[in-house]
Write a structure and sequence with these properties.
The protein is built from 14 helices and five strands. By secondary structure, the chain is an alpha+beta fold. Helix 11 crosses helix 13. It holds the Pfam family HTH_31.
């Protein structure tokens, strides 16, 4: 998919969500051929000509001023994530990279890994925009144990596991919500890094092999993922629902540290303690196996 087609489909999908009533416009006639606003209505709300808006919705955002992009975002009532995505698409179509590039990154700084490992009471990991888990602490590895099998591809990728591994659906009990979040995060990253071959390769594989991913991808939803709650169905301790906070690493652009926690005296807190005990047992068993093998 080209950036122009992404712009076209994104703007059209947002336009379809806004009714005339929601936009504060009179709804003339009872037989509207579109589910949301017409192009001419968006043009009027944005203060641009109909011909110019039609050109924008066809993907020709290159050269559009910030004022115009803001006006379109306001007319379509875009939220923070959608507005940022529209700006990412505008920048991408203006740059027009000559070739697709694969992002390369060296190892994480030791100081970042030490911070991660010091979080002994919270499952935590560092991921990139492609949803590769690049580093994980002891409790995080225990929580995501189904992803860290001996035959798992490297790096471990949350989206690939979720959609292509037969255990993915079991691990995420809030399946629909989890699917929508994962796809929206990848769609957001695709807007930020449209020329990244590792990202487009992953998306291509998921679109080809998963109908559920393909359906969700076509919705063009995006989101920011800073805080919330997430549920897991762990094979050893059962279902656990935790609060999460995701923090971007300023010194490592594109990387996010996600940490899970639970309030004291809650079932989730008890489940975390059970997870820690299970992790300790697994570590002891692995150590014993290494000793026996030597």
């Amino acid at each position: 998919m080209s950036t122009e087609s992404d712009i076209r489909d994104f703007l059209a999908s947002r336009r379809a969500k806004i009714t005339p009533q929601r936009a504060g416009l009179p709804a003339y006639g009872g037989n509207r051929r579109v589910p949301g606003l017409r192009r001419e209505e968006v043009a009027m709300l944005a203060g641009v000509s109909v011909d110019y808006y039609v050109r924008l919705e066809r993907g020709h955002l290159a050269g559009a001023s910030e004022e115009v992009v803001d006006a379109v975002a306001n007319a379509l009532q875009l939220d923070e994530a959608e507005r940022a995505h529209l700006y990412d698409l505008a920048r991408a179509v203006a740059r027009r990279p000559a070739r697709r590039t694969k992002r390369t990154r060296g190892p994480l700084p030791d100081s970042v890994v030490r911070v991660l490992d010091s979080m002994t009471d919270s499952p935590a990991f560092i991921r990139n925009g492609r949803l590769d888990i690049l580093a994980v602490n002891r409790l995080g590895r225990a929580l995501y144990a189904p992803l860290f099998t001996d035959d798992a591809p490297h790096p471990v990728n949350i989206a690939r596991f979720q959609f292509l591994n037969p255990h993915g659906r079991d691990f995420f009990p809030d399946w629909e919500q989890s699917v929508n979040t994962t796809v929206a995060l990848l769609r957001t990253e695709a807007g930020r890094a449209p020329g990244a071959s590792d990202l487009t390769g992953l998306i291509g594989a998921l679109v080809t092999r998963s109908e559920e991913f393909r359906t969700a991808w076509a919705k063009h939803n995006v989101r920011l993922h800073h805080t919330g709650r997430k549920s897991f169905r762990h094979p050893a301790i059962g279902e656990i629902t935790l609060d999460f906070d995701a923090m971007e690493l300023p010194a490592q652009p594109g990387l996010t540290l996600t940490a899970y926690s639970a309030g004291p005296h809650t079932p989730a807190h008890d489940a975390l303690q059970l997870l820690a005990a299970w992790a300790a047992t697994e570590d002891a068993s692995a150590a014993a196996d290494r000793t026996t093998s030597h």
